[in-house]
Amino acid sequence: MPYPLHVPRVNNNDDRVTLVELAVKEGDFVRRGQVVGAVETDKAVLEVEADRDGYVLKVAGKLREQAAVGSVLLWLGDSADEKAPEVVETATPVAAGQARRPTAGARARLKALGLSADAIPAQGERLTEADIERWLAMHPEAARQPEGERAAPLRAPGVPGAFEELSPEEHGMLTTVLWHRDQASAGYIEIEYDPRPWDDFAKRYAEERRLLMPPLMPLMAYQLVNIARRSPRVNGAIVGERRYRYAPVNLGFTVQAGRTLYLTVVREADRLDAAAFIETMGDIQRRALAHKLAPAEMSGATVSLTSMARWNVSRHVPILPPLTGLIVAHSAPRGTGKAVLGASYDHRLLSGFDVVEVLQALSRPTIGAES
Questions:
Q1: Of these four, 2, 105, 276, 301, which has the most CB atoms within 10 Å of its CB?
Q2: pLDDT for residue 150
């Protein structure tokens, strides 16, 4: 989804700044921390850095023109083909030394989230709950636990050491975990099933097509794509207080490349047949192992699958990726010959019944028998 990069405040006395440099254009891919432009007042010039990785979808600021502090400078997206909002939000300037005037409901919401009114643009003369929810939908990592439940800020341990910056992949995992903790109402359900029909199906598929190895996981992933295509409720997310149903099915699947865990993505997987899907998934997996993925292949998953069977793990509970409703966990068979299919899911979007239906439909191969 699109994310705004706002015009920063240079000093407390200026509510408007001039855009004096623009270092990117629409379609460019930028990294978190990359300088995208510069703004100035009569007293100072400040470089503006991207606060996340993404593609520049739309540049709202105009070079050598003034912009209100807190207004949208540009929009970033996870993929280059996303659409930026047609109506650009504008911020109500905050006078020096004064706090933005939130409504009573907005004040309560800010207190519960531990947020400052100064950080959130308002569409009208006062900051409303709708402004807050709109901003949270664009900054899911910013919400914190309610006041009574929030832990005290962590300090450096009382042991000699030094801080290190997180890698982009580690920062992505941090964002995922924080979203899972603070936004989703995460649940977990599992069923036991007989893995032999799937093993036999994958072997026959490989023999018929003269493949070197039975493509068990790609076939299960492809069946999950078909389930999500037939059940659009599964292929969605909660944004604010509304359900967002994705148009394509973008299948996310985990790849462990050394110490790095990728959630790789086959985009528009619902448009591929089984053979094309398996080929695409295999190609992405090989490039993930070589750490040569394109940005679009690491973002935009709408439903996901992960497996720890190669490590002989018989049960695991996965973390739900941001802005998705479901991730299925595949495991190795137990000593009884049975295996477990589990799923972490967003209970705001799906019920336990919905998830059980998905797992039951995935427990036996039906590729080729589906309408």
A1: 301
A2: 45
